[in-house]
Design brief:
The chain is of the alpha/beta class. The chain folds into 3 domains: 103 residues, Arc Repressor Mutant, subunit A, CATH 1.10.10.10; 109 residues, Periplasmic binding protein-like II (D-Maltodextrin-Binding Protein, domain 2, 3-Layer(aba) Sandwich), CATH 3.40.190; 95 residues, 3-Layer(aba) Sandwich (D-Maltodextrin-Binding Protein, domain 2). It contains 12 helices and 12 strands. It has a 5-stranded mixed beta sheet, with helices on both faces. The chain has a 3-stranded antiparallel beta sheet with strand order 10-7-11. Helix 9 links the parallel strand 8 and strand 9. The protein is rod-shaped, with a radius of gyration of 33 Å.
Length: 327
């Protein structure tokens, strides 16, 4: 390989000739360049990159042609980088490192261990599901960035439409006729009336709505107009349903605290009371007629959108969560 001219001329040559061509370089050639620089010989570099010496030499000649510059001088049986090569080495190392880091990031994303994911759910569901889902997603995933929104279903839907969320877990009926959204039904909810253990109405049978209304009522979050009409018709009531509730609160932890400390009664989905029913701190009241509200929980996302693989991990966990409840 021929001896380079003055360093100043060479650097100017690189500035004018190499930069426009850099985008067409491939990192395989750059790795070959770095291997020769690091080992000082074609034979040692060929072993390092698992190529034959002739193949490595051809790769270096192709790179010199691409860069329009000589890269090595031979000195005492060693290949010495020319000023052209020296000027380009730092950038070559960055390119190779960035490719390796990019490949690693994509591998982590494919495994669900990197990327970013924003999702939401209602407070009642979050009371039991959210922390468990977050711990599952965070396990062994230091590069995964998570953001959550706890809100009413209508606000979760608005956030999804505004692309503030990748998906939410909630009542799929709000979106099941919208072609722009994709829904996956997972759990048909059962409703009931619930109170703390040892509530005055605990052991009474066939309670009427009049007997229930003697106690404070809690409305757990948002109640739509259709649900309000169904409730009033079901129990032969008139006027405003919300006027009959002492407390309307979307925060599950607050609702739970109030329920445990007072004689309040809450109409809610059984799912939100599962743990309390199992440990005996909450009881189901026998109210006649029973609530006939319809609610199907599931996953709601935008149709036709590619999700990061971490979303698939989240979906699998949510599916398993509801499947375990069914059994």
């Amino acid at each position: 390989m021929r001896r380079a001219g003055s360093c100043l001329r060479q650097l100017k040559f690189i500035a004018n000739q190499v930069a426009p061509k850099a985008a067409s370089l491939n990192t395989r050639q750059l790795r070959h360049l770095l291997a020769v620089v690091d080992t000082g010989s074609v034979s040692a570099a060929a072993q390092q990159v698992h190529l034959s010496q002739p193949a490595l030499s051809r790769s270096l000649r192709a790179l010199e042609s691409e860069l329009r510059a000589p890269l090595f001088d031979r000195h005492e049986r060693r290949l010495v980088p020319t000023p052209f090569a020296q000027a380009y080495l730092a950038r070559a190392r960055r390119i190779v490192l960035e490719e390796a880091e990019g490949a690693r990031e994509l591998a982590l994303m494919h495994s669900g261990r990197a990327g970013s994911l924003a999702f939401g759910m209602g407070s009642a569901l979050a009371h039991d599901l959210l922390a468990r889902l977050l711990m599952e997603l965070m396990a062994g995933a230091p590069r995964l960035k998570l953001r959550t929104l706890i809100d009413t279903t209508d606000r979760l839907l608005a956030a999804l439409r505004n692309e503030e969320l990748d998906f939410f877990v909630g009542d799929i009926r709000i979106a099941d006729t919208d072609a722009a959204l994709q829904v996956e039904p997972l759990y048909a909810c059962r409703f009931g009336w619930f109170a703390r253990k040892d509530h005055p109405l605990q052991d009474q049978r066939a309670l009427s709505i009049r007997e229930v209304l003697r106690y404070p009522l809690i409305a757990p979050g948002f109640i739509g107009a259709d649900a309000e009409r169904r409730f009033l018709r079901r129990y032969g009531l008139t006027g405003s349903m919300l006027d009959r509730f002492t407390l309307q609160c979307a925060d599950g932890a607050t609702v739970h605290t109030v329920l445990m400390a007072t004689d309040a009664i809450i109409p809610a989905i059984e799912l939100t009371m599962l743990h309390e029913l199992r440990d005996g701190t909450v009881v189901a009241l026998d109210v006649v007629p029973a609530l006939d509200a319809e609610l199907v929980l599931g996953i709601v996302q935008r149709a036709g959108r590619t999700q990061v693989p971490a979303a698939a991990r989240a979906f699998d966990f949510v599916r398993q969560y509801f499947a375990a409840i069914e059994h």
